[in-house]
Design goal:
By secondary structure, the protein is an all-alpha fold. The protein contains two helices and no strands. The chain has a domain of 49 residues. The chain is elongated, with a radius of gyration of 16 Å.
Length: 71
Amino acid sequence: MEDPIVPARGAICGMPSSPINDPEHWLKRAEEARALAIHMEPVSKEMMLGIAKDYERLAERAAERAKGERP
């Protein structure tokens, strides 16, 4: 007899747990992007900081999903 499928901790609506649904994942990515931006030329730095902001928005959406809110 097979073991029943149990959703991983943090799973949303029966979806498997994934870094996509983890706000900390996105916040770490934002931090990495800001750290890389320090060493870049101005135009590239501006773009990388924009990417960091996008990662922060993804973290917010992941947190909303975890609460069951619609983004």
